[in-house]
């Protein structure tokens, strides 16, 4: 609720009495602190009236960047005024002039501050760019080191292959690497189609070969990738065939799977033999579409098995 005039006057009078009582009871130290606070408040009000911003409120006659010992007062230097030809100005005009000068000084200080901040930003950006360049340089160095390490391991693998071939204890991966390599002509090895190197291998042997092929693909970093991919397909197809043969010896479902496989193998030999790789690709896409469309009377197992064997057949053809 809004107070009446009489109540406001009464509260004001009580406040004055309390202030007078505090003054009477205060110690000398408290008195000095009160007067100092009052003086600072007065100076602050004066600075605000002069148009000073918040960041300049802490400046005093003894502590300011302008070197002005009379910063808070109106200094009149008669001789300087006469020399400048402004001694005729009255005190009011001089105050206005000093106020403009102080404002110019404040703006100049602000410019200096902005320039300093800009230099600091530019320095931070340069340091950031240098750091990024250093990281890129380190990444490039690490990449080069990785490539050199991979090349070293590849050369070591090829050297071990040469030794095993020369000693007559070549592994399948040695013969495949020899087949695809054009730099090992000094080794006398009779070359056959690469998939013939799988003849006589067990499932375990071919599983090891698939792992060895993956190692070569990683070390060669994309070189001969089509060859190694085809050999992976062919080897995995041979593994599947051997496992079906093992399962067929147990009877039941295994025999049925082997029967399907036998009919598929017969179809592959009779239908796809002699066709070019491009013709095989067209047939492969046709079988894929047939499986995708489906139908109530479609033997999905047969066509999927046919597609898998055709994939291996295409790898051999390529």
From TrEMBL:
Stretches assigned to coiled coil: 98-136
Compositional bias of kind Basic and acidic residues: 26-43
Region (Disordered): 22-48
Residues covered by the Splicing factor cactin central domain: 135-318
Lineage of source species: Eukaryota, Metazoa, Chordata, Craniata, Vertebrata
Gene name of the encoded protein: Cactin
InterPro entries reported in the protein's UniProt record: Cactin_central (IPR018816)
PANTHER family: POLYGLUTAMINE BINDING PROTEIN 1/MARVEL MEMBRANE-ASSOCIATING DOMAIN CONTAINING 3, SPLICING FACTOR CACTIN
GO cellular component term, pick one: spliceosomal complex
Protein name according to UniProt: CATIN protein
UniProt KW keywords: Coiled coil
Single GO biological process annotation from the record: negative regulation of innate immune response
């Amino acid at each position: 609720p809004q107070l009446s005039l009489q109540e406001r006057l009464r509260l004001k009078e009580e406040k004055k009495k309390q202030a007078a009582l505090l003054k009477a009871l205060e110690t000398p130290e408290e008195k000095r602190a009160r007067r100092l606070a009052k003086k600072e408040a007065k100076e602050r009000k004066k600075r605000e009236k002069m148009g000073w911003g918040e960041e300049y409120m802490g400046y005093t006659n003894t502590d300011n960047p302008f070197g002005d010992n009379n910063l808070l007062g109106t200094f009149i230097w008669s001789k300087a005024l006469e020399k400048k030809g402004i001694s005729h100005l009255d005190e009011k005009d001089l105050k206005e002039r000093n106020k403009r000068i102080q404002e110019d000084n404040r703006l100049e200080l602000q410019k200096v501050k902005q320039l300093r901040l800009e230099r600091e930003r530019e320095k931070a950006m340069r340091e950031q760019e240098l750091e990024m360049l250093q990281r890129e340089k380190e990444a490039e160095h690490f990449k080069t080191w990785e490539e050199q390490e991979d090349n070293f391991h590849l050369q070591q693998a090829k050297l071990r292959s040469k030794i095993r071939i020369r000693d007559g204890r070549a592994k399948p991966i040695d013969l495949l690497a020899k087949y695809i390599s054009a730099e090992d002509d000094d080794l006398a090895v009779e070359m056959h189609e690469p998939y013939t190197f799988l003849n006589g291998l067990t499932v375990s042997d071919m599983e090891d070969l698939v792992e060895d092929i993956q190692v070569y693909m990683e070390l060669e970093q994309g070189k001969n990738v089509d060859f190694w991919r085809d050999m992976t397909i062919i080897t995995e197809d041979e593994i599947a065939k051997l496992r079906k043969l093992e399962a067929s010896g147990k009877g039941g479902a295994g025999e049925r799977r082997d029967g399907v496989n036998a009919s598929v193998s017969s179809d592959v030999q009779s239908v796809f033999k002699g066709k070019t790789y491009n013709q095989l690709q067209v047939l492969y896409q046709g079988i894929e579409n047939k499986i995708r469309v489906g139908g109530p009377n479609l033997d999905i197992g047969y066509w999927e098995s046919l597609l898998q064997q055709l994939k291996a057949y295409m790898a051999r053809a390529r």
